[in-house]
Amino acid sequence: MKVLLVDDSGVMRKIIARGLNSLWVDEVVEAADGVEALEKFGDGVGFDLILTDWNMPNMNGLELIQSIRGAGHKLPIMMITTESEKSQVLLAIQAGVNDYLVKPFDQDMLQMKLERVLPNPATA
């Protein structure tokens, strides 16, 4: 399984990537903001999931989701962020996010959310 991980914090990307690699993820492609994420995403072929932060420079996570959904891509997208206000969650859902994980979180919560958005995560 190949995941696009988008977060402006290099430390947070490393922590999340380590968690993903300890599960069933084969490859984690990292990006520091939405602009870099779109460049790495390209036509989307080969990616199984996008995990994105909300608050980032240049292009935030909400704008990234809107861009990807606007281009017709259907792959699962999970927002991983400190934004926990109900209005923020609703905005993300309206933009097309499949699930929402509030920082900080533990490995078990990450795994549970991944299992919820991916039909057969171990074989994706």
UniProtKB/TrEMBL annotation:
Keywords assigned by UniProt, alphabetized: Phosphoprotein
Modified residues (4-aspartylphosphate): D53
Gene3D superfamilies hit by this protein: 3.40.50.2300
Top-level taxon of the source organism: Bacteria
Domain Response regulatory: 2-118
Keyword tRNA processing: no
A GO biological-process term: phosphorelay signal transduction system
Pfam families attached to this UniProt entry: Response_reg
Keyword Ribonucleoprotein: no
Listed name of the protein: Response regulatory domain-containing protein
